[in-house]
Structure formats: structure tokens, C-alpha cells
Amino acid sequence: MVYNSQEPGSSGIAAGISQLVSGCPYAHKVTELTSKTTDWGRNTLYYLLFGSAECFREQMRIEPGIDRFFPEKEFPVGHKIKLRVVTDPSKIEKILKIARYSEIMTGGSEFDALAHVIGDKNPLTEITEAEHDKIKQYAMKTRFGANIINQNALKYFTFAKNFVKKEFSLADGNTLFNMTEILPCFTLGISSNIVFESENTFSDSKITSVIGKLEQFISEGMLGHVRHFVPGCLDHEKTKCMQTFDQVVKQIQYPEKQNNGFACTMKRDNFSDEQIASMIKTVLVVGSGTTKSTLISAIYELQKNPEYQEKLYQALVALDIPEFNEEELSDQSAEAYRKQIVDKLFKCEELKHFLLEVMRIHSPIPIQGRKTVTPIIIDDLIIPAGTTIYLTNFLANRDEANWENPSVFDPSRFENAENIKRFSPFSVGKNECMGRFHARITMMCFLYHFLMGYKIPPFDYGIDEVRMGDFFTHAFLRAIQAFLQLRKKMGN
Ligand code: HEM
User: Fold this and answer.
1) What is the CA radius of gyration of the chain?
2) Closest ligand 1 atom, CA of 424?
3) I need a labelling partner for 459 at 20 to 30 A (CA). Which of 41, 70, 273, 490 fits?
């Protein structure tokens, strides 16, 4: 690896990279560089500029076999990687603004990695701007806009209530629940049930683990993260996972009876079968992974901060949302409940601040990639066309230059409206998250029922440090588990 350390503090970035991509072929070299200096460049850990496709071609040395996974033009065999790290805060700020708002950058290598799993006909990986805009606007208008999500508030609330009631019915303080296994069933189930109106409940852990595996393939495709690339082996495993996944997608795409779910709506509006399949995959893989990993992190923080857990619980109790049995509701009272959920739960400041703090400290999307379309000149820095830029959210979110006591879990920091304004876990600009309202409501409804029903005592993870891995959606390296104490019996 050619390492450009001409800018101050770049070794800190190196340490950051090695945290994020530990295990990738060049990470040990990065670590070596770190050990030579005491400067962590703490306020400069924002951007890693990786060499353009040209640089990859010239310098990246990749084991034979990798080219079967990566497109030949991007990652040819036999070259070394050239890494350029930008650490000058003023340049970083300029790049940040360009990357977030401009048309002269497209998605970076994670979009290519995603395309391998979810196809290239969806808002994340769509190559033509016009198609991207068309399909994304359509999705926001028909299924993911704030108004539509609010209209469906009762459905979200009820799904979460029934899930929590069923899944944790054995809670007695001594039964251990594996939240890392349970939560994907929830996030996949709610997407499938509410977005696609599908009967598929995702209660089969084999299917949820296949989808988890696909997430891992995406991670490996990002950052040239190739440690698991054993030629032949991966292809076989990935093919098997994709086959299972395709079967699930088919069940959703071609239901026995037509419904008003997103897939059938897209069909009626003349989207192609390929586009519809890709949208289902996007929602299942991208939407579920991020939401699930945020909820898992939330459980972890509640275990670690029992006093805060009590505070949040009291805030939820104070909302005073009455119990109801949805099957017995008249249309009129259903509407009254829906309004209460929207007005009380969705506007609950304490819950909002809690989720923001979880997303700050655990960064569900740890890095975002962008690729320059044209050469960009920032002061004396020339970024060639085709350069991949990584926005290292994970590092920026824990940077002392940005946050007071960044490693302290403190939702009250978001009582300051300025902090809310400058924190965008769902990104901003052209690529802003399409599923943000769906994700927020999903997480709020789960946490409401979970915390109203159960107290989560601290959990002793023993000497194992609970560390985050370098996945596409940030995830703990070990399972998050919980004993649950009943607060009150769940009603109907
Ligand atoms: C806690 C949950 C979530 C977080 C933190 C999150 C975060 C993000 C971020 C940061 C981006 C921008 C990525 C980039 O620019 O490189 C993004 C894009 C996207 N997200 Fe989410 N997301 C979440 C949930 C969801 C859900 C539930 C869905 C779908 C139902 C979804 C669908 C998408 C799509 C389609 C895009 C691409 C938008 C575009 O490029 O135009 N996300 N998300």
C-alpha cells in the first residue's frame, strides 16, 4: 500500500481505518503506521479518499479469484491499493458538503457491493439519475412518506405489540433472550407485513440468518474487504444464500391473492418485475439490517444505563396511551387510537433523543461511500474523477471536536436543538434515506411495548469486550442477550 502521510494527523485516520476494516489485507500495514506516532489526529477523522479506479488498476494487488466477485474494471487482479487520507478540517468540510448535496458525486463502492446482492434496479444502486429519482420519489409518495407512515401508525403499533407479547411470553427474570437473533425477525416481519402486506412472518431463523449473511457479503464487497474470499467457496455459499433469498422474495412478489402492498402496487403501476424484486430486496436487506442493528444497540445501552432506562420508561408511562384490543375497535375508535399514537408516541422527545444517541454512539451506517464523477479541486487538493471517498460516520460521531464527552452515552445532549440539526444518521441530500420514517416508527413502536412490558437488568458479558464489527450495518461481534423482568402482563 502506498500511504500518503503528508498531512498532519493522518496516522489517526490510519488507526480509524484499521478499526473499521480490521482483517482486510492492508490493515496490518495501517496499524504499523499508527504505532510510529502518538498523534491520533482526533479532530480529523472524517474522510478517507481512496485512489481512483486508475490507482486501483495500477497498484492494488489482489489474490486471484477476487475478480469473480468485483467487476473487472474496478478491482483487477494483481495491483496494490493507493490510499490517500485527507485530514485538513477545512478541506474535509468542503468535501462533506459536496458529497452530501452535489450531483458531481454518486454512490461509492458500497453501492457496487450492494448491487451484487439486491440488483442494480433500485434507489440505492440505480445507475441513471433519472431512474433513481423516479423510483425513489414513487416509493416516498406511495409507501414511505411521513403522511403514509402516520396513516399506518396503528398497524405498526399493533404489529409490535403482538410480536413483543408472543416472543417474550416466557420472561420470568431467568430466561435468557438472544436479542441478536430475535430482532431481525421483528424488523423483517414488520417490513414484510406492513410494507408488502405479505403473510411471510420471518419466524424461521434459517431465513433471517441467510439475510444476515447477505449483509455480510455486502460488507465484504465494501472497502475491498476480502479476508473471507476463498476462491470458489464464497461463490458457492453466496449462491446458496441468494437462492433461498430469491424464494422468499418470490413469495412476496407473487402473492396468492392480490393485495395493496408495495409489490402489488408497483406491478399495477407498470414497474418491471426486475425493479419490483430489487425493491423488495432493498427493503429487506438494507431496511431491516440498519433498523435491527440500531435496536440491538439500544438494548445494549439500556442494559448499561439502568437509571436512564427507568427515566425512559417513566417518559413512556407518562404518554398515557390506553390499552386496546384492535380486533374490537370500531373504525371511529381505531382512528382515535391512531391519532394518539401519532400525537403522543411519535412525538415523544425522550424516545427521539434516546434513538438519536444510540445512532450517534453506534452509527448503524458506519461509513458512506461516494465516487467523484468529475475531477474536483478543493484549494490545493485535486481529487480525480472516479475517486471513491469514504465518509467515516463512525469516527465523526465519536469525535471530541464535534461532541462533548463523545464516548459517554447521554441522550440529553439532544435537548439542544443545535445538536439535532447537525446530526443526520439518515444522511441528507440526494441519497437521504428513503426508509427513515418507516425505520423511526418501527423502532419507536418496538421500544414502547418492550419497555412497557419488561425491565432489562444489566447483563454481565464477562471478560469479552462487546466490540463492534466492520459490517455494512454496524453490528456487535457477539450476541446481545437479555434476561427480562416482567413489569406488567401484556394485555390483548
Ligand atoms: C435505523 C435505520 C436506518 C438508518 C440509520 C439508515 C441510514 C441510511 C443512510 C445513512 C443512507 C445514505 C447512504 C449513503 O448515502 O451512502 C440511507 C439510504 C437509504 N436507505 Fe436507509 N437507513 C435506515 C433504515 C432504512 C429502511 C427501513 C429502509 C427501507 C425501508 C431504508 C432504505 C434506504 C434506501 C433505499 C436508501 C438509498 C436512498 C438513495 O440513495 O436515494 N433505510 N439510509
Assistant:
1) 23
2) 10
3) 490
CA dihedral 9, 15, 21, 24 (to 10 degrees): 100
Atom of ligand 1 at shortest distance to CA of 430? 41
Inside any domain, residue 420? no
pLDDT at 182: 94
Give yes or no for residue 183 CB within 6 A of ligand 1: no
Ligand 1 centroid distance, CA of 287 (Å): 7
- Choose the final residue of a domain: 415, 433, 451: 415
Q: Which residues pair with 389 in a beta bridge?
A: 49, 370
In ligand 1, the atom with minimum distance to the C-alpha of 122 is: 35
Q: Write the burial class of residue 173 (CB in 10 Å: 0-12 exposed, 13-18 middle, 19+ buried).
A: exposed
**Atom 24 (ligand 1) nearest CA:** 287
What pLDDT, on a 0 to 100 scale, did the predictor assign at position 9?
34
Residues in a beta bridge with 64: none
Q: Mean pLDDT over residues 380-404, rounded?
A: 72
Q: Which domain holds residue 262?
A: 119-362+425-492
Q: Are 286 and 178 in contact (CB under 8 A)?
A: no
Q: CA quadruple 91, 96, 101, 104: dihedral positive or negative?
A: positive
Residue 393 CB less than 6 A away from ligand 1: no
Q: Which of 247, 286, 283 is nearest to 262 (CA)?
A: 283
Per-residue pLDDT tens over the stretch 328-374: 888 888 999 999 999 999 999 999 999 999 999 888 887 777 777 78
Please give the number of the atom of ligand 1 that sits closest to the Cα of 368.
16
State how far the Cα of 4 lies from the Cα of 13, in Å rounded to an integer. Answer: 11
Rounded to whole angstroms, the Cα distance separating 254 from 266 reads 12
Number of helices (H), then strands (E), in the chain:
20, 14
Number of independent structural domains in the chain: 2
- The tens digit of pLDDT for each residue in 221-273 reads 655 443 333 344 456 777 888 888 999 999 999 999 999 999 999 999 999 99
How far does the centroid of ligand 1 lie from the alpha carbon of residue 285, in Å? 11
Q: Whose CA is nearest to atom 19 of ligand 1?
A: 433
The CA distance from 365 to 23, in Å, is 19
**Structure-derived torsion over alpha carbons of residues 425, 428, 433, 438, reported in degrees to the nearest 10:** 70
Look up the CATH number of the domain holding residue 468.
1.10.630.10
Mutation pick for ligand 1 pocket among 433, 438, 443 (CB with most ligand atoms within 8 Å):
433
Q: In which element (H, E) is residue 411 found?
A: none
Cβ count within 10 A of residue 405: 9
Q: Give yes or no: residues 246 and 311 share one domain.
A: yes
The alpha carbon dihedral of 42, 44, 50, 51 has a sign of: negative
For residue 427, the ligand 1 atom closest to its alpha carbon is: 10
Whether residue 169 lies inside any domain: the answer is: yes
Q: Distance from the CA of 470 to the center of ligand 1, in angstroms?
A: 18
Pocket of ligand 1 contains residue 427 by CB under 6 Å? yes
Q: Whose CA is nearest to atom 31 of ligand 1?
A: 435
